[in-house]
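Private note to self, pasted from the team thread so I don't lose it. Backbone tokens:
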């Protein structure tokens, strides 16, 4: 059955549009620094410009787009300094989460981690960067869940959302995925061995290594 026009989907239209626009941005269809044409987007989404404006406000609140007076709305483009600051904070929160996760790891969780790690290895073998990226997010999210700290989860989620705009662009470089998953296994092994300090260190090093990999290819604004 055909998908109905957005204008007929009922309540929450602006949030539906926001989710679809966010997916377009994360997929790279809208590039960092690119202007969003409200009229063209309304035509594409099959709705008026009002819900488009509301959706853009939602994305602005998430830091995904930026409104520039008298110029329009643009996909946010992180500066190098902003990116490095976010990575520093992300490393600290992820390290904390891995340390705390050691206290809550069960056999069911071990099986989840092992499935994710194996699936990421398979994604490496097939060169499927999109699949690897999604599995990578699940691996990190599971560790944050096991930290049993809602504020840590929210803070980390905020950092990840901001970095989506640059990470997806550089994630498929040769060797990056496989090195990343070796680091994942080091974190997991420390958690299984019930070594909180090692888990924390491995998690912090993983994020820091990811930053180095990204910087080696970075071509964005300074």
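Design output:
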């Amino acid at each position: 059955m055909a998908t109905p026009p957005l204008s007929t989907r009922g309540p929450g239209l602006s949030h539906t549009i926001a989710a679809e626009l966010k997916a377009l941005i994360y997929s790279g269809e809208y590039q960092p620094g690119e202007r969003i044409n409200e009229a063209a987007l309304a035509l594409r989404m099959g709705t008026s410009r009002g819900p488009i404006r509301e959706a853009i406000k939602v994305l602005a609140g998430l830091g995904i787009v930026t409104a520039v007076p008298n110029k329009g709305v643009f996909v946010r483009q992180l500066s190098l300094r902003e990116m490095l600051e976010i990575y520093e904070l992300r490393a600290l929160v992820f390290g904390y989460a891995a340390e705390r996760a050691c206290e809550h790891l069960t056999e069911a969780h071990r099986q989840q981690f092992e499935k994710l790690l194996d699936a990421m290895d398979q994604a490496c073998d097939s060169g499927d960067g999109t699949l690897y990226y999604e599995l990578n997010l699940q691996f990190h999210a599971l560790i944050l869940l096991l930290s049993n700290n809602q504020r840590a989860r929210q803070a980390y989620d905020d950092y990840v959302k901001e970095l989506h705009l640059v990470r997806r662009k550089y994630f498929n470089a040769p060797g990056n995925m496989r090195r990343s998953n070796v680091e994942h296994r080091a974190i997991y092994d420390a958690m299984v061995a019930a070594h909180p300090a090692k888990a924390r260190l491995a998690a912090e090093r993983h994020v820091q290594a990811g930053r180095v990999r990204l910087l080696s290819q970075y071509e964005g604004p300074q």
